[in-house]
Design a protein that fits this description.
Blueprint: H1 2-12, H2 49-53, H3 67-72, E1 95-97, E2 106-108, H4 110-116, H5 138-142, H6 161-164
The structure holds heme C (3 copies).
């Protein structure tokens, strides 16, 4: 299951490879990305990131594409699987994560994740499926655990604090 879904990510989100390479506002041409051979025959044949990605809903971080909107708005139609028996499981319920100190709370949205991933990509190995059962903190996330397995690698970067910490604390402050 893991492998199959990562293949979906692989084919659907080939552009995410450029997460690290993209600079604010533009896409690095293939010949300058330090991945492709600038002298090779593929240059001029392969589609340039700017040509492909500039047509998708824009974002301000990572590779400058809002992939969730691209999917929700039907701009892209990634293939779920080569095998017809694959069942896509969507979960709508978000989870409010309150252990955030002074920061706004984290609203973990199941829906956009399950549009891209299967439950087994996260449960039960990386996240126990029980509210509050995971001893998560920012240090571990920055070390590549929990949300940090994907965010900063194939999903939007960890510098975007407010995308996760999106629910203000209502308590009045003294
Ligand atoms: C990909 C999502 C995500 C991003 C981006 C993110 N956080 Fe967090 N953060 C979390 C989660 C999840 C927790 C744990 C919540 C829980 O267990 O209830 C957390 C916990 C925290 C905590 C409390 C625990 C601790 O380690 O002290 C602080 C403070 C915090 N984050 C600050 C930040 C700051 C500052 C940024 C931006 C530089 C940031 N976070 C970016 C998801 C994120
Ligand atoms: C990207 C990772 C990820 C994926 C994919 C994912 N979950 Fe979760 N799930 C979480 C996180 C994070 C929590 C919150 C855990 C916590 O509060 O510590 C959670 C919590 C839960 C919970 C307990 C809270 C609740 O909503 O009742 C259940 C049940 C659950 N998930 C089921 C599923 C199912 C079923 C799927 C597939 C349809 C799925 N999850 C897909 C990360 C994921
Ligand atoms: C297995 C990989 C994976 C893990 C683990 C993961 N995410 Fe994500 N997340 C994604 C992908 C893929 C997207 C969609 C691409 C993007 O927005 O960059 C996404 C998108 C999001 C979004 C944006 C949703 C939207 O509507 O735009 C939020 C918020 C988010 N994740 C929070 C979290 C938090 C909080 C955690 C940890 C509790 C977490 N994610 C763990 C892969 C993951």
């Amino acid at each position: 299951m893991m492998r199959r879904k990562w293949q979906l990510l692989g084919s659907g989100l080939a552009g995410l490879l450029f997460v690290g390479a993209a600079l604010a506002g533009y896409w690095v041409p293939l010949a300058q990305d330090n991945l492709h051979d600038p002298e090779g025959p593929a240059i001029g044949v392969l589609q340039e990131p700017a040509e492909a990605l500039s047509r998708l809903p824009a974002d301000t971080s990572g590779n400058q594409v809002n992939w969730v909107r691209a999917l929700e708005e039907g701009v892209i139609h990634p293939r779920t699987n080569l095998r017809p028996e694959t069942r896509v499981r969507i979960r709508e319920t978000p989870v409010l994560m309150k252990n955030t100190g002074e920061m706004p709370m984290v609203l973990f949205p199941h829906r956009p994740h399950t549009l891209w991933l299967d439950c087994a990509n996260c449960h039960e190995k990386y996240f126990v499926s029980k509210v509050g059962a995971n001893p998560i903190n920012m240090y571990k996330i920055l070390q590549g655990e929990y949300c940090g397995r994907c965010h900063g690698a194939v999903a939007f970067p960890l510098t975007e604090c407010n995308r996760c910490h999106s629910v203000p604390r209502k308590e009045a402050r003294p």
